[in-house]
Amino acid sequence: MRNGAFGADKFGFDGLSAVRWNLVEPHLYEYAISAGEAQLACGGALAADTGVHTGRSPKDKFIVRDAQTERTVWWENNGALTPAAFKQLHDDFLAHAKALNYYLPAESVMPMHCSANVGSNGNVALFFGLSGTGKTTLSADPTRTLLGDDEHGWAPQGIFNFEGGCYAKTIKLSAEAEPEIYATTQRFGTVLENVACGSITPLSVPATLAV
After folding, report:
1. Which of 45, 114, 148, 204 has the CA that lies 20 to 30 A from 165?
2. What is the pLDDT of residues 181-191, one digit of tens each?
3. Nearest 5°: CA angle at 31, between 25 and 35?
4. Three-state DSSP class for 145?
């Protein structure tokens, strides 16, 4: 359902011939497959390949090159960043972080980098940690409902998720070690990003997809 107070025009999208806004999963599948951006995997997940842009690439790691690091870093395999460029990136990051941590508390919301789940009696558990430290795994409890696995807000009304999803790493993922997370790879509505699939189902999408 669209909230008219927060339409696409509020985000600078104006004068467009069409805007597909907050589509449900079947329609997202339709557009992604029709555009050749993804394929339907066995079990119902959507397998997408982002090409050369795969996220956390070792080649995208940069070090500030100055008088201190000039002779102590192997520059053949490390990207160089000037002090001026680093300061600009640092300032941009601080501006973003300050905006999140400045405006939300003023609205009685505390932003948190954590995963969260909730029990049947409404009690919420929070799991804090840096990326890759196990927040997703710890919050995937079969006896509790997952709220999210990365960014949340704590308001007087309760805990809520910023991202609207769970983003789990698939490396070494197995049904034995993480059954709840593994089960989602065989489920409609899951997007498998840059995951090699043994069985891909070619699908010809009609002009209109019945749901």
Report:
1. 204
2. 889 888 999 99
3. 145
4. strand
